[in-house]
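Predict structure. Chain length: 333.
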Amino acid sequence: MNPSLRSWLGRLLLAAAGLGLVVYFVHKAGPERVAAVFMQAGPWVPLILALESLQILSDVVALRCILRNRAADVPATTWVRSSAVAYAMMILLPAGRAAGEITRATLLAQKLGTATAAAAGTQLQASYLSAVVVASSIESVVVACTFGIRTPLVWLLAANALIMAAASGGLFALLWDARVGKWIARAHDRVLHTRLSASSWDPGLRKGLPKRAMLVCLAGRLTQTTQYGVILAAVGGARGVRGAFIAHGIHLVGATLGDLVPNQLGIVDGTYSAFAGALGLGDKTASAISIAFMAHAVQLTGAAAGVLVGTITRYPGRSEHRMSGAARAGARS
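Prediction complete.
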């Protein structure tokens, strides 16, 4: 079987398994009750969408902090297209965050060069993971103070923090090793069929921690925490800062457990169902599942918009390329 076909079949099977889990949890909670809670949260959707947009923007700001002066080499259209398509890939593909950053780096490579774009994308991913470490740690403390240290959610969040710390540290370690430039160059030569000189690797992107980018990514996670607090209030759960941290902590655990499933379908839903009591929902499983449903709906809407924006902005880029070619030809003549 063709490797590409096998990969797509695997993705379809994972998506089907996730949808199967969603159906199971909805059936268990009661479709009518889930639908009623979901409709009740409708008026909150504009605010939830706005908070999702701020998270997308935080990635762009963090990446510009990493690129510094090189950010000016990227036209506004490329920023918009790379961000929109990257977000869509994050939502629609397995291991979404990594897939999205690879897509973003590929699109930015047209303006920055493959090695620089890859290095910047790797730093962004490492910065994002470091922000998840901080968020998971804070939320594990909040859960421990609220329900006691023996609560399973405390240990799941602590484990999530350790896993993310190891992943983030590993990426930064690669970037600090000069050999990583050659490794990324060879990898992109194989994937993109380009000829990339190792000397084109931008050493300036490897010096020190991207502190500003890490702070921006942390602000993005705090925005997401606020978003989940809003969703929790919208479905009738406990309101306030504590509820927001707990709801977001459950999301982080579910997202890690279901990383290989597109949009973590079924996995995040089951995690919310399991910890409904921690959200002040008691035995209201329908309300807990509606939190995941609302997040899925907002993210899938954003992914659809990302695909549309990516398609629309594709053509101006081609026109710009043709005009630039014509201008160069005119200059030569």
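Summary: DSSP finds twelve helices and no strands in the chain.
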